[in-house]
Design a protein that fits this description.
Layout (H helix, E strand, L loop, with lengths): L2 E5 L4 H8 L5 E5 L9 H10 L4 E4 L6 H4 L3 H22 L3 E6 L22 H15 L4 E6 L2 E2 L6 H11 L2 E5 L3 E2 L2 E2 H17 L5 E4 L6 E2 H12 L4 E5 L13 E2 L4 H7 L6 H11 L5
Parallel strand pairs: 1-2, 1-3, 3-4, 4-5, 5-10, 6-9, 7-12, 8-13
Antiparallel strand pairs: 8-11
Bound molecules: NADPH dihydro-nicotinamide-adenine-dinucleotide phosphate.
Length: 287
C-alpha cells in the first residue's frame, strides 16, 4: 500500500491516521474540500484519486445534538459514506469505515458479538447503523470497525475533559453504570492501516469488525485511572446514569467482543491504560 485517501483532517481518528501513517502517503481531504453534506462532491474525490485505499474518518459525532438534527446526521454518517463506498467499489478500492457500539441497545452485561442484533437507542446510533448498511450495500471490499469511547490528545474527549475538571475540582461525580472499552485513536489508526493492507492483498476479510480497548471499565473507574496517571488528587464519586440526564440515551453496556478482529487481522485488543499513558505524555500531563 503506497497511498491512502483519508476523509477527515481534524478529528481524533483523522489526526491519529496522520500520526501513524509511517511510509504510507496520505491524501487528506478535510471539510474545506470534502464537505460530507455533499455526497457527490465527496464521491468525486474517490473517482479521481490515485490512492490504493480509502479511509473514512469523518462522522457527525455530536450524539446529543443529533437527537434534534437527525436528517443532517444521516447525510454525514450514511448518505455520503454510501456514495463514497459506491465510488470506491466502482474503482476496486478497499474502503475502511468506522462505526460505533451505539448500534447496539446496551442491554445485558456480555460483550456484543458481531452476530448480535443491532438496535440503536438514538439518532446518532441510527445514522451510524444506516452508514454500515450503505457501505455494505455498495458491494465493494470494505472493513467496518465498530469502536467505542475514543480518546486521544486531539479534539474533545473524556480524557481532556477529566484533566481540566480534575485540576479545578476536589471531587467529581461520574457515571458508574455505563461499562465499555476506552479506545485510543492511535490503535484505531493502526488497525485501519493493517486492515487496508490485508484487504488489498485479497477480499476474503471484507466485513464488519469490533475494535475496542480493554479492559472494560466504567466511566468512573476510567476517570480514577486518568487522575492516578496524571497525579491529580480529585476524588471520584460514583453516580448512576439516571442522575446525569442527557438528550440522547447512552447504552449501559458498551462492551464489544474483539475476537473476530484478532483472528482476521492479528490485531490484539489494545490495553487502553498504555494508550492513556501516551496520551497524557503528549498532553504534558503524565505524572
Ligand atoms: P471527531 O468528532 O473527533 O471528528 C469528526 C470529524 O468529522 C472531524 O474531522 C470533523 O471535521 C469531521 N466532520 C464532521 N462533519 C463533517 C462534514 N459535514 N464534512 C466534513 N467533515 C466533517 O470524531 P472521532 O475521530 O472521535 O470519530 C471517528 C469515528 O469513530 C467516527 O466514525 C465516529 O462515529 C466513531 N466513533 C467515535 C466515538 C467517540 O467516542 N468519539 C465512539 C465510537 C465510534 P470538523 O473538525 O471540521 O468538524
Amino acid at each position: 500500500m503506497k497511498k491512502a485517501l483519508v476523509f477527515g483532517a481534524t478529528g481524533q481518528v483523522a489526526c491519529a491516521l496522520q500520526r501513524c501513517a509511517g511510509d504510507v502517503v496520505l491524501e487528506v481531504r478535510g471539510r474545506d474540500e470534502a464537505d460530507f453534506s455533499d455526497p457527490a462532491a465527496c464521491a468525486a474525490w474517490v473517482a479521481q484519486t490515485d490512492a490504493d485505499v480509502v479511509i473514512n474518518a469523518v462522522a457527525y459525532t455530536a450524539v446529543d445534538k443529533a437527537e434534534g438534527d437527525e436528517a443532517a446526521a444521516l447525510v454525514v454518517n450514511a448518505t455520503t459514506p454510501g456514495a463514497i463506498a459506491i465510488a470506491a467499489a466502482a474503482r476496486g478500492l478497499p474502503l475502511v469505515h468506522i462505526s460505533t457500539d451505539y448500534v447496539f441497545d446496551g442491554a445485558g452485561d456480555a460483550p456484543f458479538g458481531l452476530d448480535h442484533p443491532v438496535a440503536p437507542l438514538g439518532a446518532y446510533g441510527r445514522s451510524k447503523l444506516a452508514g454500515e448498511v450503505a457501505v455494505r450495500a455498495a458491494g465493494g471490499v470494505h472493513a467496518i470497525f465498530r469502536t467505542s469511547w475514543v480518546v486521544s490528545p486531539d479534539g474533545a474527549n473524556f480524557v481532556k475533559t477529566m484533566l481540566r475538571l480534575g485540576a479545578e475540582r476536589e471531587r467529581l461525580t461520574i457515571v458508574a453504570d455505563q461499562i465499555g472499552g476506552p479506545t485510543p485513536a492511535d490503535d484505531i489508526a493502526v488497525a485501519c492501516f493493517v486492515a487496508a493492507r490485508q484487504l488489498l492483498a485479497g477480499p476474503s476479510k471484507s466485513g464488519t469488525y469490533h475494535l475496542s480497548g480493554g479492559p472494560d471499565v466504567s466511566w468512573a473507574d476510567f476517570a480514577r485511572e486518568i487522575f492516578r496517571q496524571a497525579g491529580l488528587a480529585c476524588e471520584v464519586v460514583d453516580i448512576p446514569s439516571s442522575a446525569y440526564p442527557t438528550p440522547a440515551r447512552r447504552p449501559l453496556n458498551s462492551r464489544l467482543d474483539n475476537c473476530a478482529t484478532e483472528a482476521a487481522f492479528g490485531l490484539a485488543r489494545p490495553d487502553w491504560r498504555f494508550g492513556l499513558t501516551e496520551i497524557l505524555k503528549a498532553l504534558g500531563a503524565k505524572h
